[in-house]
Amino acid sequence: MRGDGGDARQVDLARRLQRANRVAATAFLIGGSLFAIGAALAQSGVEFTVCATVYLVGGVFFSTGGYTSVVQVANEPEGGLEALSPDARWRWWGREPRRLAWLSAAALFVGTLVFAVNLVDSFIAGLSPTAEDRLVWSPDMIGCALFLISGHLAMAGISGDFWRIWRRRDLGWWIVAVNQLGSALFMVSAVAAFVRPSTGDLLSTGIANWGTLTGALCFAIAGLMQEFEHPLGPRRRRDQPAAA
Questions:
Q1: Number of independent structural domains in the chain
Q2: Where does 95-204 have alpha helices with state H?
Q3: For residue range 199-214, what is the model confidence (pLDDT) as tens digits?
Q4: For the chain, counts of helices (H) and of strands (E)
Q5: Does 244 map to a domain?
């Protein structure tokens, strides 16, 4: 390694990005595992408060992973380390709406925050079916939709096209694909968790629990896979500006 300042900045940035990638990956691995445990407990008939607490802790890890993903993308030079600006500084937030990778990470992060509303509201006792659908079910649906949007944007970023999302088969593609499957299963779970106003019962408790469990396992598996991904690998280098 040469001793000039440019090389030193590149090495430092690479290490920081790798660290951020590991934090995000570990957060999704733990968050997904906790959601799966919460769903398994719920399906086994464990007291609701216990399950909700496990979900809430898992939600904290999901939000941590979502935020770290935004930080990671905000600090990745679009042209790789060689394109690093001499005056570049590490940023704890960034707004780059013309980058698909940033839009994907931002949608994911916002989705985790909306899920947090759902998780906190679930502790409110004595809600009517209508109030539960408004305060618990609606944020759940919005969060799932944002997760699905995030996954599609990530796939488009890999392929460089909104429609040819199946073109690449690298590790980054598989991570996104497994996460997207998890998002779809979360959406199935959310739909099944709708509370019937007439009876106060869920559309399908079993589907809601199993959808959450399997979807969460997808996120945990993708988090484990992400531990082996380099943050400046093919998935990042292929990032394209979003269409105007």
A1: 1
A2: 100-121, 129-132, 138-159, 171-192
A3: 888 889 999 999 999 9
A4: 8, 0
A5: no
